[in-house]
User: What shape does this take?
Amino acid sequence: MSGEAQAKRIDLANPTVRAIVLFSAMFVLILAVGFVQGAANSGLLLTQALAYALIALGLNIQWGYGGLFNFAVMGFMMVGGASVVFVSFPVNALFWDSEGPVMLGRALLAFLAGVLLVWGARHSHRLGVRGGWKTALLVLAWFIAYVVYRSQIDPAAAYIESTAGFVGGLGLNPILGWLFGGLVAAVIAYIVGRISLGLRTDYLAIATIGISEIIRALLKNMDWLTRGTMTASPMPWPVNLPQDYQAQGIPISESFVYARFGFFALLLAIFIVVFFFVQRAYGGPWGRMMRAIRDNHIAAGSMGKNVTGRQLELFVFGSVLIGMGGAILVTFNQIFDPAGYQPINHTFMIWVMVIVGGAGNNWGVLLGAVLIYIVWIISDPLAQAIFLNLSSWSQSLGWGAIPEIDSRALQMRVFVLGIIITVALRYAPRGLLPEVVKREV
Amino acid sequence: MDELVFFINRVLISGTVLGSIYALGAIGVTLIFGILRFAHFAHGDMMTMGAFIAFLLASVCTALGIVTPIPSGFLVLPVAMAITAVIALGLDKGFYAPLRKRGAKPVTLLIASIGVTLILQGLLRLIFGSGTRSFYQSEPKEIFRIDMSALGGSRPITITEPQVLMIVVTALLVLGLHFFLTRSRLGKAMRAMADNADLAQVSGINTALVVRVTWIVAGALACVAGTMLALDVALMPDLAFNIILPIFAAAIVGGLGHVYGAIVGGFLIAFAETLSVFNWTSVLRPLNDLLPEGMALPANLALVPTEYKLTVAFVILVITLLARPTGIFKGASS
Amino acid sequence: MALIELKHVVGGYSSVPILNGVDIAIEQSDIGVIVGPNGAGKSTTLKAIFGLLKVTGGTIEFGGENIANSLPDKLVPKGLSFVPQEKNVFTSLSVEENLEMGAFTRKDDYAQTMAWVYEMFPVLAEKRRQPAGELSGGQRQMVAMGRALMSKPSLLMLDEPSAGLSPRYVIEIFETIVRVNKEGVGILMVEQNARQALAFASKGFVLASGRNRFTGTGAELIADPEVAKSFLGG
Assistant: This one.
C-alpha cells in the first residue's frame, strides 16, 4: 500500500525522475541477472550490451538526430569487424612471402584504372560527348573497368586462397583496429550517403538494406581477405585474456571474470568519452541545426542550410560509431564470422534498442540498448524453461513431448523482439525516455 | 542446337519461374504502397507464412490419402490463399490499423512492419523449427521432356510439372487481377485510391473497404508466391526474407504503386539475375572452332559469380533510383 | 425548410479554431457563393460541412438532420457532393472511370446519370477513354464536376472552381454551374472571382476571420458600397 503511495509521489512525467527510476530498474535487473548467471556471464553480457549501446548511439545520431533511415547497421558492423581482423590479426608470413602482395597490388592498380576510366566517362561532356552517347560511354566504361578489375583480382584471390589461405592481419593493437574500423565505415558511409541520402525514406530503407546485403555477400565470399565462412579466430585482445590470467596461476573461473571485466572497463572508458561528446554535440548549435533539418527539411533548406551536406555528416559520424562497435564486438568475441551476421540480430535489434529507448535521447538509447540486450539474452533460457514445463505437462497428458526444445526456444528471442517493438510503437512511440526538446527562450 | 536448348533450360524457363515469383510478390508490395503509402517489409514473411500454410494443407491432403493428377501443393492453393488473406487482414487490424488511426507517419508503419517480420519469423521457427522441408517428400516431381532430335538437338528441353503449373497459375492470376482492376467497381476504386487517396475519400469511396481488399489481394498473392518459391527451392522459415530485396527492387523499378510496372519489374529483375550468373561459355562453345589454334573461351564466362546473384537486383535498383527514381512506369511520387 | 443550414459553426484543425461562428442557409434552388479575404475560412467552411475537419460547435443541418462530423462516405449517399480545388481528378484513371468513382456509393444503375453528365459536357464523351491526367485544366474541372454529379447530389459544393482557368473557361464553368442549378441541384461555392460569381448568385456570404460579415442576395452584396470597398476591390 505504502509503495503505491510512494509511486504516486514520484512524478514520472518529469524526464529526470523518469530517467532515474528507469535506470535504477535497469541496474536492479542487471544485478538480478548477475546473481542468477554468475559474475563471468555478467561480464560477457555487460560488455556485449555496452558495445551494442555504442552502436545504438551511432544509429541514434543518424535516426534520432537526423531522421535518416539506416537499415545498413549490419553492413557497417561487418565492415568494422573485417577492419579489426585486418589490423590486429597476427601477421600471415606465408602471404607476405608469396606473390600475393604483388598480385593484389596489380589488382589495386586495375581498380584505380577502372575508377579513372569511369571518372573520365562521367566528365566526357567536356569533350563534347552528350546525351545518349555519354550514357553509352559510361556503361562501356563501367563494363571495361569491371572486366579489367576482375581479370586481376580473380587470379590474385585464387592464388592467395590456395597458397596462404588469406592475407592475415598486420598484428597491430586491436584498439588501432577499432579506429580503423570506424574510418573504413566512414569512407563507405560517405559513398553510400552521397548516392542515397537524397532518397525518400522508403527508398532509403531499401537502398541501405541492399547495401548491407552486398557488404555481407562480399565479406562472406572474399575468402582471401576475411577467410570468409572459415572465420578468422582467435582475435587478440587489447587487455589480458583469460588465458593470460590463467598463466599467472589464477583459477579458470576467476580468470574469465578478471579478463571480461578488464575489457568492460576499457570499453566503458571509451563509451563515456564518446557519450560525452555526442551529448555535447546534441545540445550545441550543431545539434540544434540538425534537429531543425530533421523536423523541417524545407524550411531549413530555404534558410540557406546545406541540408544534404549536414545529413551526410550525420550519416558518416553515426556509421563511425557503428563500425567501431562492430569491431569491438569482433575483438571481444574473438571471432569474425561473416556467416554469423543476420539482419535480425544486428540491424533490426539495434533499431528496436533505439526506438524502445527513445530516439533522439542518448540516455534513452543507452537504457534501451542494455534492456533489449538483456531481454534478448534471457528470452532463450526463459522460453526453454517454459517449454520444458509445457513439455512435461503435455507428456503427462499423454500428448508426447515438445520436440527440439533447444532450437525452438532460441527463436523465442526473435518473436519477443517483434512483440516489444510493435507494442512500443503503439503505446510509447517516443520511447521509454522520450527526446526532451529544449525550448529556446 | 544443344546450346540453344541449354539456354532455354537454364535461362528462359528458370527466369520465367523466378520472374513469376518476383512479380506476384512485387504486386503485393506495390499495392500496399499505393494504398497505404508504406514499404511493407513483412511481405517476405507473409509469403513464407503462406507457403507453410500450403505445406500444412498439402500434408493433410497426403495424410488423408487424396491423390490427384496435379501436385497437392497446387491443389490446396485456393484454401491456403484464403487463409493467408485472412491472416493478412488480421495483421493489419492488429498492427497497422491502430497506427494509421493515430495518424502515424508512414515511416512508423515501416518500422512496425519490421516488428511484424520478427513476430512472423519467430513464430514460424518456433512452430516449424529452422530445418528445411520439401513439398516432394511423398510425391515425385514429374518432368516433361520435349524431344529436340527432330531439330538436330541431342538433349531435350526439360521442364518440370510444377514449373509449368507455376507459369500457368501466374498468368491466370495476373489476368484475373487485370480484369479486377479494370472492370470491377472495387478494383477501379483501388486504382483511384492509389492515385489520389484524398479525392477517393471525398468521392465517397469506402476507403476502409479498399484497404481490406488490398490486404486480401496482397495476402493471397503472397501465399502463391511463397508456395511457388517453396516448390521451386525448398521450404524454410527464412525462405522469403532473402528475396524481399529483389521483390522491392522489382516494385521500385516498375514504379511503386504501379501494378503492371511491378510485373514487368519482377521479370526484368529475374532475367537480369539469371542472365548475369549464366555461364556464356556453354552457349558460345561452338565459337571455339572459329577461334585460332591455341585460343579458347574461358571455362566460366559468367558476368557475376553465383554468390553475388542477389547483388544484381540491388545494382539495378540503384541505377533506377539514380536515373529514374519514379521507375520505368511513373510510380507514386509522394 | 432550407436544404442545408449551418448554425454558428465553430471548427478547425487540432485545437485552433478557424471558423468562429459561420451561418449559412441554402435552398435547393439557390446558388450560394462564399467570398472573403484569404484565410477567412471559406474553404474551411466547405471542408467542415464535408467532415474533412472537426466541427466543435454549432450545427450543420442537411435534409433535417445534423450531419456535423459525418464522413464523406456517409454524406455522399445523403445527396452531398464536393469538388476540391486542387487535385480533383484521378489522373491515371480514364474520364469514364473518374465518373464511375463518383457513383461509388450508388447501388442502382447509373447509366442515365452518366448520359446526363455527358450531355452537359459533350467534350468528356469524346475523351471518355482518355486518362484524365492528359486533359486541359478546363476539361479537368469538367471531369471533377461530372464526378461529383454522378452521385445525383441535391447540393453540390465547389471550392474555387474557376481557380487557374483562363477567362474564357471561367465564363464557361460559371455557365455550367448555372445550368446544373437549373437541373435542380443546389450550389454552394467558394470563389475568388467574387464580383463575377456574385453576379449570378442567389445568395452571397462574405466571411472574414471565420465569421459572417455580410449576408444577402448576390445583387445586394454587389450593390452594398461597404462590401464593394472592402471585399470586391472598390
About this structure: The two ends of chain A are 42 Å apart (CA to CA). Residues 93-165 of chain A form one domain. The first helix of chain A runs from residue 2 to 9.
